[in-house]
């Protein structure tokens, strides 16, 4: 399947079935196993295909656990059973990076807490130089402002673990996660631009569409440049997923989505700040995304260190 065909299929499904469960989304489209190697039931594709799906998820504000399952867990683990379950869409998985927890691994027992984790069934934790699978002692879901990105707090009370992959590969998994999130952000920013442009054509003041006024034209033109630059940054990273490209995409796309979401509200005017309109949902998603794997300044800091 070509990238345009993949995009069309995912966009059509998300538009027609916005409330479909993960098993149906992953099972009917087969997208959960895009990056899973073929010997384990996957398609064996790379970051380009994953980025297409992430863009469409960002556009539609889908809550599906694609980022943590199909991108992070599929890249992190070498467990054949887990990889097959991911590819089949029968299990979701999340990865807890070293900076996201205060856990201690003693032998085959894990203790500690991970306060903000992308929600999923199977939990993989980088701890003690290893990647281990552990069943949390407790899960406490958060009631967040951004309901499209479920987060949970995990605690581990001397729970038994088992080896799940290479513990030294966590930076690579983090970079892939940042790139995938950047693609989501680029998709969300593009959707905000589309909504703002459409409204500027429909809303009339003084007998003219507001899009005919110079101030609105300039705002939309500036936003178009921001959105296209975000897409370029995300796709450059997807084409060549290096640490530097991930840091650039993570920094720029976070700020671009925040700006696009804010401009969308402003151009909509009064209706844009109401709960009845979807503009606030993009603003919430943009705000939470900008902190998910570190704020933009942390990505720029990684470039300076490099």
From TrEMBL:
One of its GO terms (molecular function) is oxidoreductase activity. Pfam families: Acyl-CoA_dh_1 (PF00441), Acyl-CoA_dh_N (PF02771). Residues 179-295 form the Acyl-CoA dehydrogenase/oxidase C-terminal domain. Its cofactor is FAD. The keyword Flavoprotein applies. Gene3D superfamilies: Acyl-CoA dehydrogenase/oxidase, N-terminal domain, Butyryl-CoA Dehydrogenase, subunit A, domain 3. It comes from Nonomuraea mangrovi. It is an enzyme of class 1 (oxidoreductase). Belongs to the acyl-CoA dehydrogenase family. Keywords: FAD, Flavoprotein, Oxidoreductase. This is Acyl-CoA dehydrogenase family protein. Residues 22-65 form the Acyl-CoA dehydrogenase/oxidase N-terminal domain. Its EC number is 1.-.-.-.
């Amino acid at each position: 399947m070509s990238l345009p065909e993949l995009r069309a299929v995912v966009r059509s499904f998300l538009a027609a079935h916005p409330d479909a469960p993960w098993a149906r989304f992953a099972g009917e489209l087969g997208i959960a196993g895009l990056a899973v190697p073929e010997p384990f039931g996957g398609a064996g594709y790379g970051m380009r295909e994953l980025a297409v799906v992430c863009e469409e998820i960002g556009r539609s504000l889908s809550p599906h656990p694609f980022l943590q399952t199909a991108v992070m867990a599929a890249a992190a683990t070498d467990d054949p059973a887990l990889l097959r379950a991911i590819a089949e869409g029968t299990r979701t998985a999340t990865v807890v990076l070293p900076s996201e927890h205060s856990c201690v691994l003693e032998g085959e027992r894990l203790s500690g807490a991970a306060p903000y984790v992308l929600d999923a069934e199977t939990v993989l934790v980088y701890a003690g130089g290893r990647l281990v699978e552990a069943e949390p002692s407790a899960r406490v879901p958060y009631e967040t402002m951004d309901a499209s990105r479920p987060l949970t707090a995990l605690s581990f009370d001397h729970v038994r673990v088992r080896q799940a992959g290479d513990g030294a590969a966590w930076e690579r998994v983090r970079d892939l996660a940042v790139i995938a999130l950047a693609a989501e952000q680029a998709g969300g920013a593009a959707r905000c631009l589309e909504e703002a442009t459409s409204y500027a054509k429909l809303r009339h003041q003084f007998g003219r569409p507001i899009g005919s006024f110079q101030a609105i034209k300039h705002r939309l033109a500036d936003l178009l440049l921001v959105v296209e630059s975000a897409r370029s940054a995300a796709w450059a990273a997807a084409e060549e997923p290096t640490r530097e490209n991930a840091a650039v995409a993570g920094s720029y796309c976070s700020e671009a989505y925040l700006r696009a979401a804010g401009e969308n509200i402003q151009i909509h005017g009064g209706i844009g700040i109401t709960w009845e309109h979807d503009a606030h949902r993009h603003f919430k998603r943009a705000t939470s995304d900008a902190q998910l794997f570190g704020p933009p300044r942390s990505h720029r800091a990684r470039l300076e260190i490099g």
